[in-house]
Amino acid sequence: MKIPKHVAVIMDGNGRWAQSRSLPRVAGHYEGVKRAEELVYTCMEYGISYLTLYAFSTENWKRPKEEVRALFSLFESYMKSKREEFIEHQISVNFIGRRDRLPKSLVKIMQETETITQNLNKIKVYIAIDYGGRDEILRAVNKILKSGAKEVDEISFSSFLDLCNVPDPDILIRTAGEKRLSNFLLWNLAYTELYFTDVYWPDFTKEEFLRALEDYAKRKRKFGALT
User: Fold this and answer.
1) Could you confirm whether 188 is annotated as catalytic?
2) Are 79 and 87 in contact, with CB atoms under 8 Å apart?
3) Which of 47, 177, 74 is CA-nearest to residue 129?
4) What is the pLDDT of residue 79?
5) The overall pTM is greater than 0.85
């Protein structure tokens, strides 16, 4: 089976999954973390080198403050508890997006996690927190202006993006029935294959992921050329 090198995922439907079970929305996020961890190991099993997960968007600040605080607390506790596991299984964990609006305690843990896992190479996992595609492009433009560059091409522009030196995703998976990009990796997804499923993220098991890989394997990628 043709295996993608880079998989990107919009992990949607945690709150709706919880509400359908008369649980608080945060319960869906806790269950969603389990699926994310399972996905990392499945990617490793199938030789996928890069995985990018959309965890918290620039628009998610509009959600109730209690839910946002619970999410950040979940991020912190999870990163603290899994460091030794990351090292043992050679998982490099990185973060993309803004950091100036995040809690300082969370930023500290993010930086520490990146530092201790930076030389691990079984899989590179990128977690998007306070990330927005338009915001990323604007940040890149401002970096270019500060650098003094008067002209850029696609390659040089890409070097100012959050996923610089990372191949573009081969497939984007979005769960929970929504069929839009929601401001995710707008530059990088130019020729990415899109896969949508009605399954809520907490129900997106290994079997569901393999269905997505099988669908991807059947596609012919032409990148604007002829087959």
Assistant:
1) no
2) no
3) 74
4) 95
5) yes
Which entry of 14, 60, 100, 170 is annotated as an active-site residue? 60
The per-residue b/e assignment along 73-110, b for 16 or more CB within 10 angstroms, e otherwise, is ebbbeebeebeeebeeeebbbbbbbeeeebeeebeebb
pLDDT tens, position by position, 2-42: 999 999 999 999 999 999 999 999 999 999 999 999 999 99
CB atoms within 10 A of CB 60: 17
The one catalytic residue in 12, 135, 162, 170 is 12
- Inter-residue contact 162 to 120 (CB < 8 Å): no
178-206 pLDDT, tens digit per residue, is 999 999 999 999 999 999 999 999 999 99
Q: In a 3-state reduction of DSSP, which class is residue 164?
A: coil
Token pair recorded at residue 164: 């610089």
User: Counting beta carbons within 10 angstroms of the beta carbon of residue 196, is it exposed (0 to 12), middle (13 to 18) or buried (19 or more)?
Assistant: middle
Rg value, the chain, Cα: 18
Residue 129: C-alpha distances to residues 97, 106, 199, 224 (Å): 6, 11, 23, 32
- The reply to whether 162 belongs to the active site is no
Q: Tokens in use for 177?
A: 């029935």
Give the Cα separation of 120 and 87 in Å (integer): 7
Angle at 79 between CA 74 and CA 80, to 5 degrees: 100
List beta partners, residue 153: none
